[in-house]
Amino acid sequence: MNQQSSSNLREIRASVITLTDLILMLHPAVPQQILTAYDIDNEYRATELTDAIQRALDSSRRIIGANGDYHLKGLCDFHIGLIYLNWASCHAACHYFAEARHHWEFTDENASLCLTYFAEGRAHEHAQQYEAAMGKYTKAEQWLPRIQIATLSVQNGFLGLLQTEMQRSQMVLREILWFPPRERPQAAPRQAPPRQQQPPNWPRREQQPTDFGVDDPITEAGGHGGIPEPIINFDPTVPPQTPSSPSPVAGHEQTNPAYVWYKVEERLDESFLPKITTDTWVLVQQRESWHQYEANQLVVVMKPGIDKAGIVLQRFGF
Questions:
Q1: Which residues contact 120 (CB under 8 A, 6 or more apart)?
Q2: pLDDT per position as a tens digit, 31-73
Q3: 298 Rama sector, left if φ>0, alpha if ψ -120 to 50, beta otherwise
Q4: How far is CA 162 from CA 22, 119, 155, 159, 247, in A?
Q5: What are the angstrom distances between the C-alpha of 198 and each of 151, 161, 220?
Q6: Cα(first)–Cα(last) distance of the chain, in Å?
Q7: pLDDT tens across 291-318, in order?
Q8: Which domains does the chain show, CATH number per domain?
Q9: E strands in the chain
Q10: 3-state secondary structure of 313
Q11: CA distance linking residue 210 with residue 200, whole number of Å
């Protein structure tokens, strides 16, 4: 390993430590089923990212995915991104940081979403994709005003460290992108923040294991094929539960935030989704690009290519 690659590796490790500190401010307790960079360093002591390590990561991801908890799925993918970044696999790290963001878009975790953009920017920067890195830092900066954390001290610590690191990165990229080489100021190498002992700053483990259930339908579907036919499993003779209940269907426990109950108020075209009748309760999968509708707001589901075809739905108010 030459001197330049050794210097780059030190900067990457410094970024991993910074990103780990940031994610632990938001989510200090990590379930046993999620692997971290510290786990890999401590248990494998490998000199390269081996097949055994990759199999362990795949196994962890499958276990978490079976739970259908979007918060945990995002946390798992973010830590996997840190593991790949720790091994200087910057492109893989970018992929998993983006995957974490896709999961957290379902959970309204603005601080976590902001952090995924910043982490992706760091991975692009270490891969020498400087324009892409600057773009991700800009996106992260746009999310800063939306961050609200219940504990004020955590919010101040998180924002303070994130803004300091982001400004430093933007200054470095500004010099790389827009200064000619002979006029470019010599940037000081990025150093890891000081710490007394490394292990206590890595994730603490939850004592109780997570109760994992059936496979998440979004994970299983994987976006392949067409839109499945709606499942008609509602009895219109059974009145829905009151709005204070978690579901309009007796005995059904709704725990996945990606799905929301809607009731069909009006049909505009009988040819559009004919199996769904008026007053039917529909469990709707909200795509990540959808607007997050308020309770009791009317929503029109349109058939592509036909301006006036659709169904008027009313969200179940909790």
A1: 93, 94, 97, 98, 101, 136
A2: 999 999 988 888 887 777 888 899 999 999 999 999 889 999 9
A3: beta
A4: 7, 10, 10, 5, 39
A5: 24, 18, 38
A6: 59
A7: 445 555 556 555 444 444 456 666 555 3
A8: 3-186 (1.25.40.10), 230-318 (no CATH)
A9: 29-30, 204-205, 259-267, 281-285, 298-302, 310-315
A10: strand
A11: 22
Token duo for residue 94: 């970018």
Distances (CA, A) of 44 to 27, 52, 81, 206: 24, 9, 17, 22
Q: What are the structure tokens assigned to 26, written together?
A: 């938001």
* Cα–Cα separations (whole angstroms), residue 289 to 102, 106, 124, 293, 305: 10, 10, 24, 12, 20
Q: List the structure tokens of 85.
A: 């970044």
Alpha-carbon distances, residue 43 vs 37, 39, 181, 195 (angstroms)? 10, 6, 43, 22
Indicate the residue type of 51.
D
Tokens of 77: 């993918």
pLDDT 10s digits, 115-155: 999 999 999 999 999 999 999 999 999 999 999 888 888 99
For residue 272, CA distances in Å to 243, 266, 275 come to: 28, 12, 9
8-state DSSP, 154: H
- Measured CA to CA, the distance from residue 211 to residue 23 in angstroms comes to 23
Handedness of CA 158, 159, 161, 165 (dihedral sign): positive
Token pair, residue 110, equals: 């603005």
How much is the pLDDT for 110? 93
Closest CA to 252 of 233, 277, 236: 233
